[in-house]
Write a structure and sequence with these properties.
- The structure is a single chain.
- By secondary structure, the chain is mainly alpha-helical.
- 65% of the residues lie in helices and 0% in strands.
- It contains 16 helices and no strands.
- The two termini are 31 Å apart.
- The relative contact order is 0.08.
């Protein structure tokens, strides 16, 4: 495809990887069919399987495959199929209902800073919350774990709009607390899943985004006056558990990949918020009022940025101090090996020095 060439052996290996590691998240294909059969049926499906499997094979080819595959898919795809089977149907139902809810709410007011100031907002929120929770109750048992997470995530995403409302209103407080309960339920369901380690190892970014959203919701409520209405002990446990779940999604198993860095950021965010006791005497609020994910992710990431800058400053101070302390010894002993050894033994803060947060783009972009 394009300038990309794979040998028959590589194709067989990639198909084996796909069905071993990724097919369970969207089990609608027949693992008994050969790569040739899939290619003859649909070139876009063939290359979609290849592109997913490349995550565990040659990630450097992903960008090249993705750009060509996007054009191929749009070329081959005609009108939506009316008869959708199994998990694909559930996925469409969740997405369609969530999209309808947000479109209806968007029509109430073009200014996100004014959302929630009118009674119609609360009436529609109650209606669409019921629509989404009914879907979850009706199909939840039949859905795969991935679609159950998507279903709970769509409910949470909607409930987070209460953060844009006037926090002094009783309806707002109750809505935010429902978002908290949805978040804790999502995390508890993942923990209770017997195959969670296997599931997380190859799960899509959708799961990582939803985990972050649920964890940040817990933190936002925990560090606010609404924390008096929750069990703070279990809330902290579930936040820590969500950070561990995020780390289990580390596909490359390196400190610098997104999942591990996100887990580190989550720990830093909590510690930084814990240094601000005033938060617990105030209603939950957002620095930026926007419908985009209720700005929750970006609000919490500002705590990460501030914490990272503090750590970077401490690291710089420690390094300069260490060099100064060793300067006399260096004069007495011209061999600078000892100085270099001492500097190398300092804690490494490299992961925290990059505070532009660009590496988190894929994680915090809202998903409806």
């Amino acid at each position: 495809m394009g300038d990309i060439t794979l040998s028959p052996e590589e194709i067989e290996r990639l198909f084996a990887i796909y069905f071993e590691q990724f097919h369970s998240y969207f089990p609608i294909l027949d693992p008994e069919k050969t790569p040739t059969q899939y290619y003859d049926a649909s070139k876009s499906l063939f290359w979609s399987i290849i592109s997913v499997a490349l995550r565990s094979y040659k990630q450097e080819l992903l960008d090249d495959v993705g750009s060509v595959l996007s054009t191929l898919v749009w070329t081959e795809t005609g009108s939506p199929q009316k008869n959708l089977a199994g998990e694909l149907r559930y996925f469409v139902v969740i997405q369609k209902s969530s999209n309808e809810a947000f479109q209806a709410l968007a029509q109430l007011n073009d200014n996100p800073a004014l959302i929630g100031q009118e009674a119609s907002f609360f009436a529609r929120m109650v209606h669409y919350e019921k629509v989404l929770t009914d879907i979850d109750a009706l199909y939840g048992i039949e859905m795969s774990l991935l679609n159950r997470i998507r279903s709970q995530g769509s409910i949470l995403y909607l409930q987070l709009l209460y953060l844009l409302s006037n926090s002094d209103l009783e309806e707002t407080k109750k809505g935010i607390l429902r978002a908290y309960r949805t978040s804790t339920t999502l995390i508890q369901d993942l923990i209770a899943e017997e195959t969670i380690s296997t599931f997380l190892a190859g799960a899509p970014f959708t799961v990582l985004r939803l985990l972050l959203r649920a964890a940040f919701t817990i933190a936002k409520v925990w560090f606010s006056e609404l924390g008096n209405h929750i069990d703070r002990t279990s809330g902290k446990i579930l936040y820590d558990a969500s950070a561990l779940l995020v780390r289990q999604m580390s596909h490359l198993k390196t400190k610098s990949d997104r999942a591990n860095r996100a887990g580190t950021a989550m720990n830093m965010i909590w510690k930084h918020m814990a240094k601000k006791p005033d938060l617990m005497r105030q209603p939950p609020s957002l620095r930026i009022r926007s419908r985009m994910g209720a700005s929750l992710q970006y609000d919490c990431l500002m705590h990460y940025r501030d914490a990272a800058q503090e750590v970077a400053g401490q690291a710089e101070t420690a390094s300069l101090s260490d060099i100064g302390d060793k300067s006399n010894a260096a004069t007495m002993r011209p061999n600078h090996t000892d100085i270099n050894h001492e500097q190398s033994s300092l804690p490494s803060y490299e992961a925290f020095l990059d505070t532009d947060l660009s590496w988190l783009d894929d994680l915090v972009n809202p998903l409806t």
